[in-house]
Amino acid sequence: MLLTISTTHFPADDLSFLLHKHPAKIQSVDISSGKAHIFYPELSAQKCTAALLLDIDPVGLVRSAGPKGNDFALEQYVNDRPYVASSFMSAAIAKAYSSALNGRCKDKPELVDTAMPFTAKLAVLPVKGGEVILKALFEPLGYAINAVQHPLDTTYPDWGNSRYFTVELSHQVTLQQLLSHLYVLIPVCDNDKHYWVNQEEIEKLLAKGKGWLETHPARELIVRRYMKGQRSLANQTLDVLLSKDQVDADTAEMESPGINDAEEPQLRIHDLRLLAAKDELLSAGAKRVVDLGCGEGRLIKLLLAEKQFEFVLGMDVSYRSLEIAKERLKMDRMTERQLQRVQLIQGSLTYRDKRLQGFDGAALVEVIEHLDEHRLTALEISVFEYAKPEVLVVTTPNAEYNVRFADHEAGKMRHNDHRFEWTRPEFEAWANRVAIQFGYAVSFKPIGEVDPEVGALSQMAIFKQEESGL
Questions:
Q1: What CDD domains has UniProt attached to this entry (predicted)?
Q2: What CA–CA distance (Å, rounded) separates 452 from 431?
């Protein structure tokens, strides 16, 4: 199977810098059951073409480990996998063009965000549903499509057409956008995958679909096919996409939403924040806990699963978020005893609230950056002076990490509702001042994998009352 990407951008050989592949060399990478070869059949300042050729070993397909029954079109021993663009091609794109797919270009970083005229040609692409599906997937993204459908057998034209197409896609986009569209939609066209689909596919899809899948009119079809028809995984993914839509719609009403920064490269970073907050509250021995800016109740759900927490209060300024939290927690199905452990209230963190007093643990997970910096003083007084929990966990994005994002621009924040994003020294300076002012000791921890140069995606401060036994 063959994928070629051509551009007439001047100078066209900029494509080789974006792909991180030298045009004078034929390069190869190992993929599942075969190899991918990268070469340049055409190279000049006027036009450049990069080719990705997959050489799949049919015997290797049978020998490869994995669950039985990959649903190949003609089963294990006679199938079309070595000859068509399928999920093998997506895997090859991710491995051979990983830098370009993730928006990195060491030698010419300015090219990453440059839209260029590209033509991608796939020979051949299986499309379940025919040209109607092909157009439904690519036309909303702005592609011009030239598709030639192949007959089942040229000797017997009465048999009709096959599901195989030679496809040309043309559009002026960034290379990262083009590769992300191909990575997701090739297996969606095929409606099959060569590997077992599990929870990790949610993260892959949300990462590669960032910025376009949320608003795609065929997103339900895309999600369902990408998850190979597994309803549970598809529903979880759609929940995240629909939830993001609602959060964006409610942004104007929110002062301190505990939301998931879905713009970040991996969904799991928000899970890591929540788990880190829960673990700190557990290790501190807290029993009565308040989630400040609880959003849709994700942290509350984790806390209620731990017997140590006798009572959990969730507070948020957004009534809509609290309604979603009630549904997420299934509060309408809770027993009377379960309901005694949890309560949701509406309120603002910038005003003194007696309902927040008397808790030995509290969490502010990705909340403070949604307040204007001049309003932080009101939050400090309301939370640290009046509510005064014995232990308080605060997380916020690490601004230094933003340079690692594919769509990084100077001054651009991760979310359009962020009022500020702090570097590690800035966060530590704020936390140390607050700790001294209100009688806390404070320590710091990174959240997520630590980059040796810029730190982790998120940063966490753990405040403990100096006289507290926690």
A1: AdoMet_MTases (cd02440)
A2: 23
